[in-house]
Fold each of these.
Amino acid sequence: MNNSSSHRDSDLQKKIDHEIRMRDGACKLLAACSQRDQALEAAKSLQTCSTRILAYMSELQRMKEAQVMQKVTRRSSDAGPMDDRMPCKGKVAISDLRIPLMWKDTEYFKNKGELHRCAVFCLLQLGGEIFDTDMVIVDRTLTDICFDNAIVFSDASPGFELRVELYSCCSEDDYSAGSTPRKLASKLSSSLGRSSGKKLRASMEPGPVSPVSNGGASPLLLPVPSVPGPKYHLLAHTTLTLSHVQDSFRTHDLTISGNEECSYWLPLYGSMCCRLAAQPHCMTQKMMSGCLKVKQCGADLQSWTKVYAVLKGTSLFCYHRQEDVEANVEPAFTIGINKETRIRAAEKDPQSKVQNICISNQYGGEEVTHTLTTDSREDTHRWMEAFWQHFYDMSQWKQCCDDLMKIELPSLRKPAPATPKQGSLYHEMVIESSDDLSSSVSDILARRLQELELRSQLGTSPTWMSLFEENSPKIVGRPRPCTSRLSGHSPCTPHRLPRSPVSPHRCAQMGLLSSDVSLTSDSDSHCSTSLCSHHYGWPEPSSNFPILSSSPSRLRPRTLSLDAKLSTLRGRGLGGGGVGGGGGNCHCSCQPPSSSLLGPSPISSRSPRLQHSTQTTLSCSSSTSSSSSSSNSECSHSPESSEGVPFSRPSPVRRSLRNLRARLDPRNWLQSQV
Amino acid sequence: MSYIPGQPMTAVAQRIEIQKLRQGDHLILGFSIGGGIDQDPGQNPFSEDKTDKGIYVTRITPGGPADVAGLVMGDKILQVNGWDMTMVTHDQARKRLTKKKEDVVRLLVTRKSLEKAVKQSMSH
């Protein structure tokens, strides 16, 4: 115990020394560099180093305290063998961080002048490990802050707390923090506008360099170097635990610090989407392996099969020979070990005097029991211990043990291309070709662009082509899997590799869309496109496509046919003057059906409602023709049928029949003989 | 038979089964209908509620199949062979009654006298 702690101590000390050196280097770099970007990067590494130092020092403190406490407790009570099980550790990975922004439309549309920019990055801390993400410059053309890094923490316990902090720093070119004397600064601020003066003052105030990131750590005396240069401030933070772990994307709330007056302020929507996955070691590593004898089910009692068993994940793999494991040969059979499995030690076998282990699983409705035995009692004990530990791990890691979650190892990626300087969001909008509507639009655009390309080859090109041309040299970012499924388990990431044929022209660096329409509920899904559509000031046509694609297909044919029918009926109505009654009747009848259709039928009818919509218009016109034909046929075979006279064609026979039916005036109220 | 559009309606109804009569190439039922959602309900002399756009029987051929089956002038047809007739256009109603493949139409009709009869029997 002492050795390990002293070992850890020295380890920590080395880390602290390393970080202090890094910090000194960053300070020097910051003082020396002239360009804004460099300064921001240096400040970021300064921040990270400071936070790490703080963390390590507090860890050191805690360890020292624990040592002291242990010595005390050991003296006081003679504790037996440690009965507390420790759950196995695991890997926790967080990736695809996305923080939506909520710009006011006034900010975007009216504020054409200066572009308020901030440099942001995230610090992720779990246990003693602190990682930072790459720095992203955010301005009002960005709708989300996306961090592409996938960060893996290798040694996390189930009760981990992953603290995510968002730091931002105002990055106005004009207000590069130089050594402007105070008097001049105050003069400048009074002569400049109120908000800009405030920003100037804020950027020049020294501010704390190392923020308080550990909630309960004891205040440590740390030489805080006051370095001139950009300073990062904590903008938002949140803490993630095991309950937030899921194999898909989820949205989490952020606690925002700071207000609108701060220079580093960004209008955050208030939530953060990310994928937090965990791989406990019990799922990925071999927890126990050894030789076992398995009783064959159904056969006679004495036949035992010798196997080499490996306990990993949710199963006990039984191989014929030990070599099979390395050879990746399929195991002879697999016994499932999961939360529903019950393992117990059976009574002693009379012959071997060793207890059997019975593993029972429920497959469907049946219970299947496997009986195992080992060569010696110690082995049996060790296996039982392993099983108990495994069950304990599974109970601690909860949902992570249901299935193995994939963790992508952060591979070395090419650095992201520089964001385009200025450009309206509209120029860089990607029209996703995954839906009918959008694909048709993009097809049209593609065709037009192809035409224009041909034309430009000949020398002429329309003026709006220049909008695309200025974007063409930009490189499209990394490809990302983007599906626009409405179920919403995929990330709402910017479509880095649009599938439309004009992809080289589009630059999808802007985190626009989200063709996912999922809700922001913590329970299952993540990407809040509902955020995007409600809280942004500008329309997002592509995100609306999935919503609209279903409805217009149904609405459109109806309106088209209604329009067509109305126009034809109007023509017909004017033609038949004598048919004024019937024609006029039909004409005005076109309007009521559309409104009355929406009313529910009072008696449950098996007749399809939709049929009404399309048939109404048709019947309007056909009733004129059909009733006339029916009346004709009626009159021919039955002299009595006087009713089928919707049209007052001035013929002697009909007129007399009509007189008989004066009360029931067929001119206004159609009657049909059936 | 008060009728509020959009609200469920209850009515005392009678089932009437009419066997169509074949006359040459046509199958006739022997009555006339009026009404429909595309018609002016104010002109309906039989309806109690002048906004009722239902299908009403306006004339019965004496001795015809409808007369034999018990259909009475002024009946409101609610269903024909299961198809709803309270929210149909005039032509739809006519079509549903004159399907060539059907020999029999089973109507669900209602009339004022039915309600009265029921009320009377209930009060006893």
Amino acid sequence: MVSGAGGGGNDVQWCFSQVKGAIDDDVAEADIISTVEFNHSGELLATGDKGGRVVIFQQETENKSQPQCRSEYNVYSTFQSHEPEFDYLKSLEIEEKINKIRWLPQKNAAQFLLSTNDKTIKLWKISERDKRPEGYNLKEEDGRYRDATTITTLRVPVFRPMDLMVEASPRRVFANAHTYHINSISVNSDNETYLSADDLRINLWHLEITDRSFNIVDIKPANMEELTEVITAAEFHPHQCNTFVYSSSKGTIRLCDMRASALCDKHSKLFEEPEDPSNRSFFSEIISSISDVKFSHNGRYMMTRDYLSVKIWDLNMENRPVETYQVHEYLRSKLCSLYENDCIFDKFECCWNGNDSVVMTGSYNNFFRMLDRTQRRDVTLEASRESCKPRQVLKPRRVCAGGKRKKDEISVDSLDFNKKILHTAWHPQENIIAVATTNNLYIFQEKVN
Amino acid sequence: MAGAEGDDSLYPIAVLIDELRNEDVQLRLNSIKKLSTIALALGVERTRTELLPFLTDTIYDEDEVLLALAEQLGTFTVLVGGPEFVHCLLPPLESLATVEETVVRDKAVESLRKISQEHSPVDLEVHFVPLVKRLASGDWFTSRTSACGLFSVCYPRVSSTVKAEIRQHFRTLCSDDTPMVRRAAASKLGEFAKVLELDYVKSDIIPLFTALASDEQEDLEALVMPTLRQAAEDKSWRVRYMVADKFSELQKAVGPEITKNDLVPAFQNLLKDCEAEVRAAAANKVKVFCENLPEDSRETIIMTHILPCVKELVSDTNQHVKSALASVIMGLSTILGKDNTVEHLLPLFLVQLKDEVTHLELSPVSHLSVSLSLVVKDLSDCTTAETQLFIFQCPEVRLNIISNLDCVNEVIGIRQLSQSLLPAIVELAEDAKWRGVEFFDEKLNSLCMAWLIDHVFAIREAATCNLMKLVEKFGAEWAQNTIVPKVLGMANDSNYLHRMTTLFCINALSEVCGQEITTKHMLPVVLKMSTDQVANVRFNVARSLQKIGPFLPWLD
């Protein structure tokens, strides 16, 4: 384990490592990154985009002779995961945008991941090939046929080394199980099953069976006019294969135990913080909607992201979170304009570092926030082209909420709300983070002295 | 063999070999299926030195191809030169045993098990066991799960040192981090236990739950029972479901004593489980479980322990539970005997019949109706009039009984029928469901009367017809006392349709009632109606007269 994993957000100095994606300002819609995920070892980093493509980067093995040269992530494989489809029955287009990617724990030499768009989940196998067979009986290697009469002996092909080739092949397609848009997938710790969640239902799948899935949560009311709440995210517990949580648009999280009954409509635990009456406003319910929920690696806590804050919950305490961090409180007075430009509905994700001591989430103006739980400190950093020099240390950024703006601060009104960081990922063991701006992927690493 | 015969015989083999690399998966599959042909053509040495190395590296293929390959290799002993060289087949099978597709791994393990028998004890220790050890300590759980299936086949014939190593590996896999490996180990527990020496079974094997069907292994029962009890009360409903599902096998395995003492309470709990799926699974096993109870205590056990639970299940909220029960309840009647059936099972039946949901399931109802008609034959033995009445309050039961009125009549007799059934059956006439649906062979009088004045003409007509049959059946005297007065009474009804019905009835009845009744009672009524206000009635009077004419005594 690299030493950096123990450090907190502020002891660590983050520096630029790499940026992926087109440099120009003209953003092609298809290139907008929609999900980022490290695999279980951190060696591979996958991104999905709006055009339905998956790009996987691989960490180069460190060069021991040059410790300053931090390992870089280079393209390992690119493939088209989903294509746009048309639902003829409802006259609706099904977007090819990749909503989520989840890696399976490695089970043999190949790598496996699940990628999903709004309706269909696919299991992809990414394997390496470094040898190829040579030697035909009836033709030359270039394809020309030989004269059949010249064959006097039989020839068995032999494998010879070749340049490494990485192939991605779809192994399973899990389709037709969701009426509404899939927002989450989560692999069970039993490595055999996974769940997929849409606005109203959660289904349980077996990785080897594509024609059947079990519905384990159904919050669709008998009368759709009574609909008040939708599912926004869902995740399996990292160790307990029978436990999962799902969050809602009303700011609640439900923990369910699949052993208790076949249909988990009744939750085992309900996590909800009573509303602060002083903060009540027209937008209270909208901003309380949880956009992401993630268990900590040790399985004792879970983190939720709503529009303005990040909350850490102890699984044993349902009535309030144990920690609350403000992400961009200065936006509270701007909710009206954020509502008008729809930004209030942006779904920010959040993530834990390897030892659950620091959490990270994105904001606007290409800012992202590192919240150190042990040291109770936080920092705002920016993913920008200006700080793209190799190993350049990122400077903390400050937003001026009102009053006199100091030097180096940026005023709230100058924030660019089109530059949002919704997707971030943290290497499972090292202090390496991947931050996605609209169409670029930034990789930052801990500064090594 | 190789190449000696000339080009013609080589050509097809050459094609097959080349097609092992064809882009079309069907062609590759075809070649793999003909691998033995290729091997024969190459001869044993080239098969060993060239073909097998090539196959070992071809794991980049589609599942179907790999599956076919795994299967082929299991039959290749002769083609590589016999048992002396069978270990050459191990490398390709080893790599197939680590593939992510379960079906391919399973087939590879199956083939490995097959060829293990061809290995000499020395070869087992030199080649086979190292392979198993490599798989068992592999990085990926896929290879470790495959290893689980290979312990029992190599254990018997190796030396005791190696045996100890194998046992150690198996123990390690039973407590592997990955659940899939533990489960694979658990599923092979029984098989491995069979090849172990008894001492090691007691000392080494972890008591995981498995369905063992062998009586010899009494010691294993002692190991299994605590686990079974635990499983039946497991927190996870799926475990309890599996226990319920396998209950009859369990029963056979543990024998009558343990069944009485342990399984009956366990079964009761499963029937009362909080999860509907578990209750349904247990309900499906009720009949089989009861059938397999020891004969001497069977009836007692069922009456005291099982039946009370079953009674509760009949009013379960879950549809699947009730459906499961419907198909087994009557099966119990043969076990319980007539008295218990009528007293205990019949009411349950009826509750089910009444239930909306069970109605709609054709099979239970038709099954029930068949059994019910048989049961009804025993109704005369039934001591409680209440039960009789109760029975007839249910429409489906009435339907069945009416359809089987012959047998009911044999048993009960008309008087009893009319006396005890009358109050209940009048209800049936108002039951909207049965209008126009069925034509019955016989009718009871009030029943018929109701149908005679039904809104629907066809019903009235049918009722009339049935009336005729009734009279035929029960005789003119009966008709005179019961039916005729009622029919004639209708002649004074304010509804002209009812008056016309009287005429139609008279038309029908005159034939069977005989001259006397027709002349004395029916004719006057007909004549009276000849002055009816409604023309249609008068018209039908004329027709009636024509009809009944032949039955009137000719006046001189």
